[in-house]
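Q: For a teaching handout, I want to show students what a protein-ligand complex looks like in token form. Below are the inputs, and the small molecule is zinc ion. Please produce the holo structure.
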Amino acid sequence: MRDRVLIALGSNVNREYNTTRALKLLQQDPRWRVLAVSPIYRTPAIGGRGPQPDYFNAAVLIETDLSPEALHRALREIEARLGRIRTEDKYASRTIDLDIVLIKDRQLELHGAPIPDPDIFHYPHLAFPLADIAPDWRVPGTSHTLKHIADTLRVSAEEIQLMTERKPLFRVDTFSHYGSDQIFEAEENEVYDPEFEAMIRQILIRIGEDPNREGLRRTPLRVAKAYDFLTSGYTTTVEEVVNNAIFTDSCDEMVIVKDIEFYSMCEHHMIPFFGRVHVGYLPQGKVIGLSKVARIVDVFARRLQIQERMTNQIADAMVDILEPMGVGVVVEASHLCMMMRGVQKQNSSTITSAMRGVFRKDARTRAEFMNLIRDRA
Ligand code: ZN
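A: Here is the structure, written as tokens, with zinc ion included.
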């Protein structure tokens, strides 16, 4: 039986990452379909002993064939993947909380917790995001809609101060909210991705290191974060980064974006290769912001790659989104896996190209492109 379910989400340990990751895992899961995601709220922690970090709170509306029991288990699995360890302490800090709040028009009890969750009548951090995505949902057993409940809680000025953000703090599917320092540094007592960190600890032991020595203690966490960033292309799509920034234009001159820096990792050794990408296209009514071309390069660079495939993927993506007369992509790269092992001369770089449309068929167009990218000031 297909049910619509509202899920509340909360995190106050590495909350930017965990909130993003939980939303992403929810969206990728084939066992349900995500219909709506609320804005994310920041709220002070309540109860508990001593000062605790603020929470991020949000709500998600899904549609699923799972039984409430199976859904409950599925959410616990996601929590476990994000390092949540459930304890008796209701107020303890947590990487992520995923709670079923409402299931269609049903009233039931799930592992001792009533559904609908009675807390929605008391806590703005629950009621507000729920009301944002399902304002007209009537809470079973009452005559109140979620909007009505949220409005009631809004009356208290004290409670209203809980909210600092009415808009989403960041997009669900990007890591753009991370400054580079945050990616590679580790906060004291930070919890990130225990499974991943355990594997990296194993690598350290295997290569003869002591993962407990001072300098290495936070290394598994830093490496996990770095890998998530360096491979974020797997969870980013071209459509997302382009985000409708395609403009209609009658321009029929060749557009060139030169010297786009990129950093990738070879799929054979998981060692970096890096260099520059040059992209040219001959528009046919559609153009794209120049900075977006660099973002498209990152979608493909931030994966395990081989240079030839990355070059082709960038060209094909440009063809897909712009339907131009033609596209040319040239990539110049240095491969550390070769340089570090001394297989090749240190200064050599590998050049690959992909030509589409008139760039492939017309030698003069191709020559013009090659001249323009070679022409260094
Ligand atoms: Zn390699």
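A: Two things your students might notice: Residues 5 and 103 are 5 Å apart (CA to CA). The chain has 14 helices and 14 strands.
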